[in-house]
Write a structure and sequence with these properties.
With 196 residues, the protein is α+β, with helices and mostly antiparallel strands. The protein contains 7 helices and 8 strands; from the N terminus they run ααββαββαββββααα.
């Protein structure tokens, strides 16, 4: 009975005009072909939208970064298998290219500050194809030599966590955290191991 009912429903349906064929050549990898196909479907849609929410576990989407928590440690960028998350060689920053993200969750899993969340979605905005800066800040420079070696937020986080530690009870010891690796090793110690 079900096939007969379906046949009757289909026979009585008003035929819609066929959708125009896509004009792109399917070249490249699967992800590129999918992006072209989805862009075509959006172009011919009766009511195109810029974003479509997807369920958890979908292989497309973005990330949401809590910039207040992020210290730019770059653990997420190192773990990202597609390069969707990336740093910059000239300044402490975290960039993201949404079209490259596969929503694997490695960035979220390795973030020590729990600052990364996944946002599964189809994003048709042009920005999804470009690298956007999620967070950028000034580098921390060594107070002895001036070398930039960390971010200000990571040094502040370390100072906050280590201030109560007995090893850093003496004020000068905490100053070592602010120094680069070269200067930290060059600071002389007295017989008791305290910095002079």
């Amino acid at each position: 009975a079900a096939p007969d009912a379906l046949a009757t429903t289909l026979a009585g349906a008003v035929g819609a005009a066929p959708a125009p064929a896509a004009a792109h050549l399917v070249l490249g990898d699967k992800r590129s072909a999918l992006a072209l196909a989805l862009a075509h479907l959006r172009r011919i849609a009766p009511a195109p939208v810029d974003e479509v929410a997807l369920p958890d576990g979908a292989p497309l989407g973005g990330v949401a970064l809590d910039a207040e928590k992020c210290t730019l440690c770059m653990a997420c960028a190192v773990a990202c298998p597609t390069g969707a998350l990336s740093g910059a060689p000239d300044a402490p920053s975290l960039g993201f290219t949404e079209n490259a993200c596969v929503q694997c969750g490695l960035c979220r899993a390795v973030c020590p500050e729990k600052a990364v969340a996944l946002a599964p979605r189809l994003n048709f905005a042009p920005a999804a194809r470009e690298r956007v800066i999620l967070k950028q800040e000034e580098p921390h420079c060594c107070p002895r030599c001036g070398k930039a070696f960390a971010t200000k937020s990571s040094i502040a986080m370390l100072l906050g966590k280590l201030a109560a530690h007995p090893m850093f009870a003496e004020g000068k010891r905490l100053e070592l955290i602010k120094m680069c690796e070269d200067c930290r090793g060059a600071v002389p110690f007295d017989a008791a191991g305290r910095t002079r």
